[in-house]
Amino acid sequence: MANALQQMMRQRLDRQGWSYGDVARRGGIPRSTVHHLATAERLVRMPQPATLEGLSRGLELPLDTVRRAAAEACGIHLYPADEEAPESRPDPEVDLLIASVQRLSSDDRRHVAALVESLLERAPKEPPAED
Q: Whole-angstrom distance between the N-terminal and C-terminal Cα of the chain?
């Protein structure tokens, strides 16, 4: 059974009459990458942001649509942004991190939490906001 990304790509290619090469040229990504994403039974990890952007351009689909299909193909659920408050939309990398952490073992989650705490401690402190 095809994953969400494969289904989306197949529908788009069939509807537009495009080849993998057509998508690759428009998106500025290698044809082999397009072919892999369209035919891989299950993605092991989320494609790089530049790859998703290129695929979005090549397929002429919104980046968010492509990102969500790729995440689902990896077994990751990205929570939808609040449509009424576009300025409050989280960074896509934050969505991916949150969704990915849920797939880790409890020991690995503790390691990630410790790393985040360590990084936050060394980050420069922001002055309190004025009311």
A: 55
Cβ atoms 68, 98 nearer than 8 A: no
**Which of 49, 43, 73 is closest to 63 using CA atoms?**
49
Q: What is the 8-class DSSP label of residue 46?
A: P
SS3 41: coil
pTM above 0.90, yes or no: no
* Pairwise CA distance, residues 37 & 71, whole Å: 12
9-23 pLDDT, tens digit per residue, is 999 999 999 999 999
Separation CA 21–CA 43 (nearest Å): 20
Structure tokens at 37: 């994403």
